[in-house]
Amino acid sequence: MAIRDIRVVGDPVLRTPCEPITDFSDKRVKTLVDDLLEGVDLDGRAGLAANQIGVSLRAFSWNIDGEIGYVLNPVIDELNFDEYQDGDEGCLSVPNLWFPTKRAWYARVTGFNLDGKEITVEGEELMARCLQHECDHLDGHLYLDRLDRKTRARAMKEVRKIMD
Question: Domain count of the chain?
Answer without folding.
Answer: 1
